[in-house]
Amino acid sequence: MQGKYDFIDLSRPIHTGMPVFPAITKTFLGVYRGHKEAFSSANFTVQTNILMMSDHAGTHIDAPIHFNPDGTGIDQFPVDLAFGPAVMQDFSFKKSGDVVTLQEVKDKLEGIGVNPKDPKYILFRTGAAELYHTDKYMSYFLEIRVEAVEWMVNQGILVFGVDASTVDRDPDRSTHMFMRKKVCYHIENLANLDKLPQDRIFTLICAPLPLKDSSASPVRVVAALPRK
């Protein structure tokens, strides 16, 4: 693929002090043993680090068990979903708390001539990304209506993602609760969606860690755009 594609990293760097919801563990990433401490008589040195974080910190993908007590963990994420065609839909013109409706999703796909059976992923630009590292970020979101998610899943689009910290609102969390009805996955805290095309399909790489029975996993998400 190298040489024929431009690659765009859609993930947030993992670091101490990264934005997380107050209810989850704060992230710590630091040196456990550095080169000075690991010096040996053979002049061989190494560095190892220690990482402590929630499975829902940073750019991560939620598993069904997150809201479904009978659901599967992220280690059961289908390998064939880790790579495939995607589209990006820009709703950053909306304001926080607004909704993305089923009809809007359909209209945008039709507008660019994409059959809904073709993509594996739909990414939604909400406008929250511009507020990352500010006090407003955690409370800025668009609600991806559950009707839209159900329709996407019925088309075979089992993964969707947002550049915000959540995909719906309290107290009902209806979009999250759809995980109790059908198996699907969603990515939160994406970055750089403004660098993606809106008018065509591109390739997405999204491979979560196989964390046994975990409700989510940090994920490196990369878009591969064919060079014109």
Description:
The chain is mostly beta strands and 228 residues long. The chain has a single domain, classed as Glucose Oxidase, domain 1 (3-Layer(bba) Sandwich). The protein is 11% helix and 27% strand. The chain is built from three helices and twelve strands. The protein has a seven-stranded mixed barrel with strand order 4-10-9-7-5-11-12. It has a two-stranded antiparallel ribbon with strand order 2-3. A hairpin with a 7-residue loop joins strand 11 (202-208) and strand 12 (216-226). The mean pLDDT is 94.
Short structural summary:
This protein has 228 residues and is mainly β.
Helix and strand layout, with pairings?
Elements: E1 5-9, E2 28-33, E3 48-52, E4 60-62, E5 83-90, E6 99-100, H1 102-111, E7 121-125, E8 143-144, H2 146-155, E9 159-162, H3 174-177, E10 185-188, E11 202-208, E12 216-226
Parallel strand pairs: 5-7, 6-8, 7-9, 9-10
Antiparallel strand pairs: 1-12, 2-3, 4-10, 4-12, 5-11, 11-12
